[in-house]
Amino acid sequence: MGQEIDLVSIDDAQRTEFAARLRAETLRLKKLFDTRAFAYHETPTVGLEIEACLVDASGTPLAENDAFLDAASDPLLVHELARFNFEANVAPCTFRNLCFTQLEQRITDVWRRAQEAAATLDATPLMIGILPTLTSAHLNLDAMSRSNRYRALNEQLFVLRREKPLSIDIRGRQHLRMTLCDVMLEAAATSIQVHLSVNQEDARRVYNAAQVLAAPLVALAANAPFLYGKDLWEETRIEVFEQAVKVASFRDKRGVDIGRVTMGTGYSRHGFLELFLQNLDAYPPMLPIL
Questions:
Q1: Residue 264 lies inside a defined structural domain of this protein
Q2: What's the number of domains the chain is made of?
Q3: Are 91 and 20 in contact (CB under 8 A)?
Q4: Which end of the chain is more exposed for a tag (fewer CB within 10 A), N or C?
Q5: Cα–Cα distance measured from residue 124 to residue 117, given in angstroms and rounded to the nearest whole number
Q6: Do residues 141 and 182 touch, judged by C-beta distance below 8 A?
Q7: pLDDT averaged over every residue in the chain
Q8: Regarding predicted confidence, which is higher, 10 or 119?
Q9: How far apart are the C-alpha atoms of 166 and 44, rounded to whole Å?
Q10: 2 pLDDT band (50/70/90 cuts)?
């Protein structure tokens, strides 16, 4: 996802070619599923991505991730969407014996290096769902990280929306309404992403278990009520993610509109391949890079 790209604008010919290649690739993937050709591993592996913010002594976002990453010189620390964001990657470990102890140590190590790099800028790295100190001045195109990937993401979002502005409407304890012409609100919400690698025969069961666990985990870990000075949901990131990249996708069998950001349309019933087929037919590619 973080790989840099050479271009920002994408034309119709590239979109058509990308769609053809994606369909051919999905067909090849289906053959791998049908023949059970994936490598088998005795033990699953788990890794993490931690998105975080840089703040100054007053807790205000500090748009210095270039200088921060230069100081860190660490391949596990990389850019994120806004110049006050960064991502810390945690190398995966196998799910056996002291797996969680190893993960804790790896998180501690990469976070210590982040703290040391931030200290050279009189800054602090901060893990928080949404910074309460964010204002609209911190989230505009001038605050975007210097990367073609993010510029292309912004452009292609509005191509898919036919240049229609984003209408943000979040009702909680208070009400936030705004109209946006860029993707930068997405940078307000940071998260920890867990990557679990399992074997083909276990994938459907593990995916369905994740669906079951999603709601109680949000209930336990909700920690982002404030956005732009408004007290909204206990976990406002859900609405931020859904609305900041809102693109019409498809309707499910009940006639409900399924957006770009979703927990899926239900449990996996026939195998993991159905998720790839749904992605192929239901979601227009956001970055059709060849």
A1: no
A2: 1
A3: no
A4: N
A5: 9
A6: yes
A7: 93
A8: 119
A9: 40
A10: low
List strand residue ranges (DSSP E) for the chain, in order: 45-55, 77-79, 85-94, 124-126, 166-171, 175-180, 192-197, 226-227, 230-231, 250-251, 257-258
**Interval 58-73 mean pLDDT:** 98
Rounded distance, CA 189 to CA 232, Å? 14
100 located within any domain: yes
pTM recorded for the entire structure: 0.91
Q: Is pLDDT above 90 for 66?
A: yes
Q: Which tokens in the block code for residue 27?
A: 């067909």
- Two tokens, residue 169: 């409407």
3-state DSSP assignment of residue 283:
coil
Contact 53, 85 (CB under 8 A): yes
Residue whose pair of structure tokens reads 């979002």 in the numeric block = 157
Q: What's the pLDDT score for residue 250?
A: 76
| Residue 129: inside a domain | yes
Q: How many whole angstroms separate alpha carbon 49 and alpha carbon 233?
A: 24
Spatial CA neighbour of 143 closest among 83, 56, 68, 187: 83
Q: Is 257 exposed, middle or buried (0-12, 13-18, 19+ CB in 10 A)?
A: exposed
Does a structural domain hold residue 21? Answer: no
Residue 10: name the closest of 191, 156, 220 by CA.
156
**Range of 209's domain?**
40-246
Is the Cβ–Cβ distance between 158 and 246 less than 8 Å?
Answer: no
**3-state DSSP call for residue 233?**
coil
Q: Which residues contact 272 (CB under 8 A, 6 or more apart)?
A: 33, 200, 203, 204, 207
pLDDT digits (tens, 9 = 90+) for 79-100: 999 999 999 999 999 988 899 9
